[in-house]
Design brief:
Number of helices: 5
Structural class: mainly alpha
Order of helices and strands: HHEHEHH
Strand content: 5-15%
Largest sheet: 2 strands, antiparallel
Oligomer: single chain
Radius of gyration: 17 Å
Shape: extended
Distance between the termini: 36 Å
Strand order of the largest sheet: 1-2
């Protein structure tokens, strides 16, 4: 792609184009969750009220599954949560030795 074009998009948006696209996708997703009343946290069952709190997470660990790639993209394994609820869950997994159990 033309470097001048990339530079112009960055200047106009005030950030790299890929960053702006990621933010836009999150705004669209959050608005759809609200529209369809799906903005409920998987972990605490409370309403996710702010886009800054929105997190996408896997219900079950994909890393330790028999087919990690399939588990990662399985939409039935995807949930929405508060960022802090997701972080607390991930932190507790690490404390329980999840890091050592991974098949890396």
């Amino acid at each position: 792609m033309n470097k001048d074009y990339e530079k112009r998009r960055t200047i106009l948006l005030g950030e790299p184009f890929s960053t702006a696209c990621t933010k836009l996708r999150k705004i669209i997703l959050f608005n759809l969750l609200i529209k369809y009343h799906e903005n409920i946290c998987f972990r605490c069952n409370k309403i996710i009220e702010n886009i800054e709190d929105l997190s996408i997470e896997h219900k079950e660990s994909w890393i330790n599954s028999t087919n990690p790639k399939e588990k990662f993209y399985d939409l039935k394994n995807i949930a929405f949560s508060h960022l802090h609820c997701n972080h607390l869950n991930t932190s507790s997994l690490w404390k329980k030795g999840w890091k050592q159990k991974s098949k890396l």
